[in-house]
Hints:
The protein is mostly beta strands. It is 0% helix and 50% strand.
Amino acid sequence: QVQLVESGGGLVQAGGSLRLSCAASGLTFRNYTMGWFRQAPGKEREFVAAIRWSGSMTYFAGSVKGRFTMSRDNAENTVYLQMNSLKPEDTAVYYCAARNKYSRGSDELASDYNYWGQGTQVTVSS
């Protein structure tokens, strides 16, 4: 069965950095666009970033553009989210998700993703 396992979350001070990882298994990794979403308490899940199967194209939400980067290692079936200059408003549970590259829809819509991880908590203190 498909599993997406996030790691790397934690508590960091504002201005600090964290690197999230998501290890995938049970799927042909190179056939999937990978995305990161986040959900803060009382808020809806929102798009953070996505990377196409080849790693050649990445997309970011406006709120994180210039601070976050995303990469993938298709040999290791792993995707990364490097988060720099963190702000308290980045506090949320971060989820990794996989979307079949042949699917229609949007890389920025949570409902268009096929598989999800369990999430990892990121807390940024002021």
